[in-house]
Amino acid sequence: MEKTYEFAVSACLCGFPCRYDGKSKPNEKIKALFDEGRALPVCPEKLGGLTTPRTPCELQNGRVVSSDGEDRTEAYLLGSQKVLELCKKYGIKKAILKQNSPSCGSTHVYDGTFSGTLIPGEGCTTALLRENGIEVCGEK
Fold this sequence. Notes:
The chain has 4 helices and 8 strands, in the order βαβαββαβββαβ. It has helices at 28-35, 44-47, 73-89, 124-131; strands at residues 7-10, 39-42, 57-60, 63-66, 94-97, 108-110, 118-120, 135-138. A hairpin with a 2-residue loop joins strand 3 (57-60) and strand 4. The strands form 3 sheets. It has a 4-stranded parallel beta sheet, sandwiched between helices. The protein has a two-stranded antiparallel ribbon with strand order 3-4. 26% of the residues lie in helices and 21% in strands.
């Protein structure tokens, strides 16, 4: 029988250095779920083919754009689709993803001005998972 997981979790929350800045944002409770074998770490950006480190991105008018003006939407959508495929493969019905990310944000995202301003919204991976019946929340 294939392995199942209770949760998909942002890999950066487990301590994997996959964030845009090449760092992680470890969260002890999330890391414990991973260490117990209950959580599958995922990074939509890496799954979509983006490098680490990479230029920061924010949502602008339904697109994912980097701070240097490059449209990264396709990579983000590809990574989102791959996360959904993994959730389906492993029977995952809940995800705990990094808050505020243009991919993983579940209640707020940055406003697209690269000024650090948060607005209500969700990232593209969160939106796709929710559209497919997977519950998504942030790490807090």
